[in-house]
From TrEMBL:
Name of the protein in question: Bifunctional protein FolD
Residues the record lists as binding NADP(+): 164-166, 234
Enzyme Commission number, as recorded: 1.5.1.5, 3.5.4.9
Species whose genome carries this gene: Faecalibacter rhinopitheci
SUPFAM superfamilies for this protein: Aminoacid dehydrogenase-like, N-terminal domain, NAD(P)-binding Rossmann-fold domains
The UniProt record lists the keyword Nucleotidyltransferase: no
CDD domains: NAD_bind_m-THF_DH_Cyclohyd
The gene coding this protein: folD
Superkingdom of the organism of origin: Bacteria
UniProt subunit comment: Homodimer.
Length: 291
């Protein structure tokens, strides 16, 4: 068993980006600029945005954040998005999800300029991804693909089972793993909450990518020996022995599954750090398009 170490790999990627930014400065160019819009005071979202700003500071990007009250109307939020769409000094930005229930998420995503949509959620970018054209990839699937490539995990001709069909992870993951390229060229089965006898599929899989959000759902008897396991799930689970009162658990029963897996991502420290690093890479792509 070998660990797919997202912390180590994300540090390497951020260092590569940092060197590029330093070269831009030496040439007298402006540096890439990433923005984040946060609506409300959700603790997890706040932490995530704070970490993105830290990443920007580390690699030398300029960063901006806009924190809005959760009482803001949809029209007011879209007006703010239009302001950022028209800001030529801002290469890309994200609107942190989830949004308050009174705001239509699809309308907000559609309002973002596709050329600044570094989350890769706009229908235009999603369509380009499906057609294997250069575009912004959703950060988590992008991070997984980068991880598989850099660790030289073979994917061609393999059977990949994806658990979960969200637009953020599962569905784009199924598209990317089946694309003509490396990594890719897998035969993909996309499973979800309505799939009957899900274990039948995971037992046959060479690669299992799970984004279900159910702690320790994937057990050792659900995979075959030598399978590659990528765990996207992360859930807070009560733990009286922890100073915080909780621990972070993935979708995979890690301690038992690792004994059968060839490669496996830990939680935390696997996919999460890669997601943040890929947002930086998307911003760099937006910057290069703008320059």
């Amino acid at each position: 068993m070998q660990i797919l170490d997202g912390i180590k790999l994300s540090k390497e990627i951020k260092q590569e980006i940092k060197l590029k930014v330093e070269s831009y400065k030496e040439q007298g160019k402006r540096v890439p600029h990433l923005g984040a819009i946060l609506v409300g005071n959700d603790g997890a979202s706040r932490t995530y945005v704070d970490n993105k700003i830290k990443d920007c500071n580390y690699v030398g990007f300029e960063s901006s954040e806009l924190i809005l009250e959760d009482t803001i109307t949809q029209e007011e939020l879209i007006a703010k998005i239009q302001e950022w769409n028209n800001d030529s000094n801002l290469d890309g930005f994200i609107v942190q999800l989830p949004l308050p229930k009174h705001i239509d998420q699809e309308a907000v995503i559609n309002a973002i300029d596709p050329n600044k949509d570094v989350d890769g959620f706009h229908p235009m970018n999603f369509g380009k991804m499906a057609l294997e054209m250069e575009t912004f990839l959703p950060a988590t699937p992008y991070g997984i693909m980068e991880m598989l490539e850099r660790y030289k995990v073979p994917t061609a001709g393999k059977h990949t089972v994806v658990i979960g069909r969200s637009r953020i992870v599962g569905r784009p993951m199924s598209i990317l793993m089946s694309k003509n390229g490396n990594p890719g060229n897998s035969t993909v089965t996309l499973t979800h909450s309505k799939t009957e006898d899900l274990a039948k599929y995971t037992k046959e899989a060479d690669i299992v990518i799970t984004a279900l959000g159910v702690p320790e759902f994937l057990k050792a008897d659900m995979i075959k020996d030598g399978a590659v396991i990528v765990d996207v799930g992360i859930t807070r689970v009560d733990d009286p022995t922890s100073p915080k009162g909780y621990k972070l658990a993935g979708d995979v029963d890690f301690e038992n599954v690792k004994e059968k897996a060839s490669w496996i991502t830990p939680v935390p420290g696997g996919v999460g750090p890669m997601t943040r690093a890929m947002l930086l890479k998307n911003t760099l792509l937006a910057y290069n398009k703008n320059n």
